[in-house]
Amino acid sequence: MSRKKTLSRKKKLALLVGAAALAGGTAAVLAGTSQAAPSPPADRASSVVCTGLATALGNNEQFIAGQRANPDAQSAARIANREAVIAQIRRQQDASGCGGEASEVVNPATSAAASTPASAPASAPAPGTAAPAPPGGGGQTTGEVVCAGSTVTLSGEAGAPAASSNQFPVGTQLKVTNLDNDKSTTVQVTSPSGSCALLNDAAFEQVREPGKFLIRRARIERVG
DSSP assignment of 51-116, as one string? Predict the structure, then answer.
């Protein structure tokens, strides 16, 4: 009788040890899974670059569509120029590993809402009012704030700093400020485009953040 009880106790002990080992293994697997879940910073940076390139591509495609829908004497030359720009953007997408990401035209209102923290909504100055100069920028030119909430990207065009716009005629002076790094550039509109302010490569380099092809928090002012 005592032997049966002893064997029963040994069996129970073995079952308890096995269950403990199984629980420990499960915990280790769960811990490993939770540690592997966050995406690497490099992946997030790559996503930002690809989004900016897709936006630039979409803006240029939209411009070409507009020129084809309402052509004038200069439309053929403008379209040829933008097609060359699109080819360059696609090469940049391939070099950045974007995998042929589809073009994207950013909705200014949606973009502004997405980039504004919920705890401190940004109130854009009303059109026709003077924008405050950025910190440490005393004496800098300020003007009428326009296209509130618009994002700014690059056209891919070469040449001296300049901009293109679907809001302002050729010759208009625009000041574009990147609110994420307080860098500004004042450029002249030299051609039409599919957005409020589309900077060429030289102008965009003056205000960009390293590795980014899109300014989500921008202030655009008409200064001349």
Answer: HHHHHHHHHHHHHHHHHHHS--TTHHHHHHHHHHHHHHHHHHHHHTT--SPPP----HHHHHHHHS
C-alpha closest to that of 214 among 96, 123, 117: 96
For 100-154, how does the pLDDT look when each residue is reduced to its tens digit (9 = 90+)? 556 655 444 444 444 444 434 444 444 443 344 444 333 456 789 998 888 898 8
Share of the chain residues as helix, strand and coil, in percent rounded to the nearest 5: 45, 15, 40
Q: Return the C-alpha torsion angle 77, 81, 84, 90, nearest 10.
A: -130
Beta bridge partner(s), residue 174: 187, 222
Q: Is 29 exposed, middle or buried (0-12, 13-18, 19+ CB in 10 A)?
A: exposed
pLDDT in tens, 13-36: 555 555 555 455 544 444 444 454
pTM value surpassing 0.85? no
Contact status, residue 131 vs residue 219, Cβ threshold 8 Å: yes
Q: Helices 41-69 and 75-95: crossing angle, nearest 10°?
A: 160
